[in-house]
Model the fold of this input.
Amino acid sequence: MNDTHAKILDCTIRDGGLVNNWDFSVEFVRDLYYSLNAAGVEYMEIGYKNSPKLLKGADAGPWRFLEESFLREVIPEKGNTKLSALVDIGRVDENDILPRSESMLDMIRVACYVKDVDKALDLVSKFHDYGYETTINIMALSNVMEHDLIEAFQQIAKSPVDVVYVVDSFGSLHHRDIEYLVAKFQRHLPDKQLGIHAHNNMQLAFSNTIVAAERGVQYLDSSVFGMGRAAGNCNTELLVSYLKNPKYELRPVLEVIERRMIPLRDQVEWGYIIPYMMTGMLNEHPRVAMALRSGDDKDKYAEFYDKLTSPETALAAKGGE
Amino acid sequence: MNDTHAKILDCTIRDGGLVNNWDFSVEFVRDLYYSLNAAGVEYMEIGYKNSPKLLKGADAGPWRFLEESFLREVIPEKGNTKLSALVDIGRVDENDILPRSESMLDMIRVACYVKDVDKALDLVSKFHDYGYETTINIMALSNVMEHDLIEAFQQIAKSPVDVVYVVDSFGSLHHRDIEYLVAKFQRHLPDKQLGIHAHNNMQLAFSNTIVAAERGVQYLDSSVFGMGRAAGNCNTELLVSYLKNPKYELRPVLEVIERRMIPLRDQVEWGYIIPYMMTGMLNEHPRVAMALRSGDDKDKYAEFYDKLTSPETALAAKGGE
Done:
């Protein structure tokens, strides 16, 4: 199969930052950028373009509040790999955004829940007018009711947004869900390109992503060695080696895994870890599992399972990309 | 979807033994058996029924050369979970096998390469006449030529074997390959039940297994926490939680992971590890990657990739389940 319609968007820094509180050195991010560029990866999401004024108590690294002058330092010479940043509704100050012609960024992605699609599209329009490529990423799709989604589609169809993402926030979806959602998005949004952002709670992130690509989804989110919140994402190295496009080179990704990701994985954890498998299976936000993993009871799986599934212990919490 | 046609065959001890040279204590195996029984898992493959006389230099644990009196000690009271053992062509002494009515074993599985299907079926017939359920597991399917496979099917169709396995020895197959192979097996062997044995080199073992189940494959191999040679297998806990059959209980599997597999994984390694990803992607036996992982250069991925893909360094080797 020819996969040249597919583009890889590596979100190691942005989603992986949720693991290490964006504690990446400039050298790390620079190395990653040039490695992805050598590998032929089309986009690198280098962080959030949120405003520190709007995010209380934030002491996170600069990747959470990207500034243009800082970005120019990090990447002195841009290659073919485009740069993207994510913004959250209510956390972005539009006055911080330069026109694309003056910016290092090429794409701005807006993450939102279905109830905030109108707010997201308002931002999308502004970024679009500034010249950016835009996406809208509707989180927690597995908990969205049909009529709300249809209504959101109607608004999205009329907007200038370039790409609409299927987001498996909780890593709870399998291939039949993906086929169902992709078909639905295509039916309601025939003029939009689609993307997929998968989580690996049940070891299905890569599989779900290639199933989506096969059905025509163009933008495939991934991260190197799968680094991302909790169970992490679809692995960039798997996509680069799997997709049938002569431009992709696996070797630079292997090098950056060896140089950067293996030492980092010794310090912080992500990936297929049993409590994340459980929240995925139960279609829940991983936050309770993340709390468990940071404590002494981190491997008490059976006890945790009892808590998660007991009707008395209302641990269940929904939300989040 | 109702998945009650599917049966889980847990091969943690047999395939996992390839990781730790079958160094499992009796307590470990007993605990695993009763946990799988409580979880509703249909079969446990408790080792190999090879003969020490026919396997030179073998110093491996008793799980490689199962004896009836030993098995009775390990499992004093059998539950609903049936026991299976694997035999390799040329390594089994038929005189070691008791009739099923006198044995702890319910099923004997024969692993072979396509060129040895005649020898395998000869063994199958004997085991069948002894009253055992039988399977034939054709290894390294990804390297078998069409006409050899068709010829094998003709022999298998005439044999009394109960189950024919699709074996992804190198973890190199993805969902379209599985769909293709399952359809081919079904076309040529309409009267046989099918099984699948997947490896997790590219994080596709679970996904490939559920795709196969969806297409009607009945016997699903897996292992607890994925323990198996190199990248390991489809995870039993994922199947138990995914399959729609009210008999399955996840909790006993979680308990045995917590009690047994987490401490074991600290001592020996298996799973998604980059050199195994590479051999999977290149459709090769993991043995060179296993050798790499046992040495000082275990994380030199780029150098290993160069060796694997260089035409001069003929590292490539084929073979094995």
